[in-house]
Task: structure prediction
Amino acid sequence: MCLNKGGRILSISASRLAQLFALSALIVAATAGNAAAQTSPDRGGFTLLVNLGVGFQNDTGIEESAVGFAGLNLGVGGFIKPNLAILGRSSGTSASYETAFGDFRQVSGVVGATLQYWTSDKVYLEGGAGVGVWSADDESDKGFGLILGAGYTVWNRGKHNLQVGVEYAPAFTDGAVHNFGITFGYQLF
Result:
């Protein structure tokens, strides 16, 4: 097979195509086998949530945005029903800013209580409120904060769950700091 790319002709041999196809088939088979081996979640009682990832922070007070880290976000609580948990939670971001006033690092987030509702064996929604905080260099402030999120289970084995998710945790002080996170984490049910 020959492909024309920018005036160059690229040649892909039949054996190379067969190798790529075989590799793709192995990956699909391994993934399907792992998915089939997963068990139904055993949610009940104590739960612990730990996640981290990429964070996006928008500070309306300085009118700047930056990319940094999301987490280490934590949750501890319990299931009151198989699909509903109450958690004490922390969610936030850490980012570095380069401004006309100089460079600084800011940590911002929310500590509070949330409800985690599992809409299915794989998907949950989370919402709650608490104290919103930010701290940069030698300054800090507190106010109202929210924690909103959603997650998807990528692997489950009984009480052990690996998940990907998104979190939004704005801290409302004199100016709002909007904290967004794309996370990967572990939850013990």
Q: What stands out?
A: The helical segments are 14-37. The longest strand covers residues 139-157. The first helix runs from residue 14 to 37.
